[in-house]
Amino acid sequence: MKQKSAQYVLLASILFLGVVWLAGQMPSPLAFKPKLATEIVPSLLTGLFVIAAVSERAIAVLNDIWFGESRENQQELIRAKGKELEAVLSSSRATLDMRSKIAVEAARAGSIPPLTAESIAAITSSNAGVPATRIAAICADLAVQNQTLVTVDAKADRTRLSLAFVASLLVAVVGVRVLDSLLEGTHPPFFQFVDIVLTAGVLAGGTTAINAISELLGGYLNTSRKRALEGG
Predict the structure, then answer these.
(1) List of residues 6+ apart from 40 with CB closer than 8 A
(2) What are 116-144's pLDDT values in tens digits?
(3) pTM of the model
(4) Please, what is the angle between helix 132-174 and helix 189-204, to 10°?
(5) What pLDDT was estimated at residue 48?
(6) Which CA distances in Å does 177 have to 44, 90, 134, 206?
(7) DSSP states of 94-135
(8) Cβ distance 152 to 70 under 8 Å?
(9) Number of CB atoms found within 10 A of residue 123's CB
(10) What is the mean pLDDT of residues 196-204?
């Protein structure tokens, strides 16, 4: 289903470009601003990083206010259920050790036949007096609680991303634009719309995304300088 949706989007994009071209409305190529790599891009990335860092911290606080209590309550339920399981298993192990010692002493005294591998396996697999259904029920409940926590975290992540994108859209609408900062000239409304969405996507990715872009461009520039020096 997702593959078909992607195919439809690709086909619609190609058809849209074809209509624009046939209508003679295809915009002319734009020129990049001078000193792009040395001045404009570093300044732009620095500004984007600061905005993303502020937005990231503010949205994290809002997200924690929204989902923090639910997450903490769920974590407490998991800890309590884990302690209950550990207590049952500890009691089981203690009873099992006592039964094993009694069985060994009885075997030494000749009260029962000597222990064999089969009899030892029967003793150690007896759950030491703790019903297997109780242990299974606790484990099942613990698995449900863990899955609930995963669901809460997933909702929190989706909400954080949505809030980040909305906040980034507002910042981009105000005037922070990636493409506009890189290109010369006046741009048509559709270009500005794309620029706003693109800028919002970059900012919504947070400082991690901007750091990745910076590292990628930094590596490219270092390679270019190295080649230039070797060529000279």
Answers:
(1) 33, 181, 182
(2) 555 545 544 544 455 667 777 878 888 88
(3) 0.67
(4) 140
(5) 92
(6) 9, 61, 60, 16
(7) HHHHHHHHHHHHHHHHTSSPPP-HHHHHHHHTSGGGS-HHHH
(8) yes
(9) 16
(10) 92
